[in-house]
Amino acid sequence: MASIQNYLNSGVIDIAPLLSLVLTKSHAALITDCDYQLNNEEKTQLNQLIKQRQSGTPFAYLSGTKGFYHLDFKLAPSVLIPRPETELLIDIALDLFDKNKTCEVLDLGTGSGIIAVTISDKNPNWRLTATDFSIDALKVAQQNAKTNINFRLGNWFEATPNQTFDLIIANPPYIKQGDPHLNDLNFEPQSALVSGKDGLDDIRTIIDNAAQYLNKKGYLLLEHGFDQQQEIIQLLNNDFFNIQKFKDYNQQNRAVLAQIK
Q: SS3 helix, strand, coil % of the chain, rounded to 5?
């Protein structure tokens, strides 16, 4: 098996994008050049990628990139693979304030930087701060930055002492310990996925502390699991009002926006 056509006919999972990755050809070019014979170096590289993909390594980690909103982001195993559901947070945030005015925004647990980088690219007048407790994640986020973002190392608000913001955004870990869905996510950093017995440990920490880091009339925006929205609203009631609920593009409960009292 040496030609592109042979590989395309093999039934190997993700064989077309793997071929595109090795040969730097578009899918259309693969079809056009289907008789092309891979050389030994290309075959060796492709077979290594095939083995990794068959063992469960997500394609995004093999390619090292993933599209999100209107940008492509560099990835590494130290960060989560961006999900399209999180694009909802971008839409909500961009509708909150005038893009021509200065706005202080905090992205907690930035990971690969998708939220901070996307918002900053869309609204250059807004000042973005992005935090993560993982120095490896911050290195990835810094590589993805296209504007001047203030990256800070630390766990949640520990990274931003004595600072206040107009908007705090977080896509924190929210999966329950022992959730069977974790079996399909074992290549991704578990610390970015799991948060206690009910999946709400980190969300509680953020809600309990957010008020002192928000400016007057400031907002907190959280992504959460499909079955957690009502409990999160109860947690917000002490310090927040004007609570709004949002569904993702699959019509699952996915985000909550609340304003400081």
A: 40, 25, 40
Q: Give yes or no for a contact between 113 and 130, defined as CB atoms under 8 angstroms apart.
A: yes
Strand pairing class (253-260; 214-223): antiparallel
**Where do we find the tokens 């492709």?**
46
The amino acid at residue 65 is: T
Quick one: which of 163, 164, 162, 139 has its CA closest to 151?
Answer: 139
- The strand pair at 150-153 and 127-132 is best described as parallel
- 19 contacts 46 by C-beta, under 8 angstroms: yes
Q: Give the span between the Cα atoms of 250 and 64, in whole angstroms.
A: 26
> For each of the chain's 261 residues, which pLDDT tens digit applies?
689 899 999 989 999 999 999 999 998 999 999 899 999 999 999 999 999 999 999 999 999 999 999 999 999 999 999 999 999 999 999 999 988 889 999 999 999 999 999 999 999 999 999 999 999 999 999 999 989 999 999 999 999 999 999 999 999 999 999 999 888 898 999 999 999 999 999 999 999 999 999 999 999 999 999 999 999 999 999 999 999 999 999 999 999 999 999
Domains defined along the chain, listed by start: 4-54 (no CATH), 62-260 (3.40.50.150)
Distances (CA, A) of 103 to 178, 204, 207, 243: 39, 25, 21, 20
Residue closest to 138 by CA, chosen among 168, 117, 163: 117
Tokens standing for 6?
A: 């042979």
- Say what the pTM is: 0.92
Parallel/antiparallel/unpaired status of strands 253-260 and 240-247: antiparallel
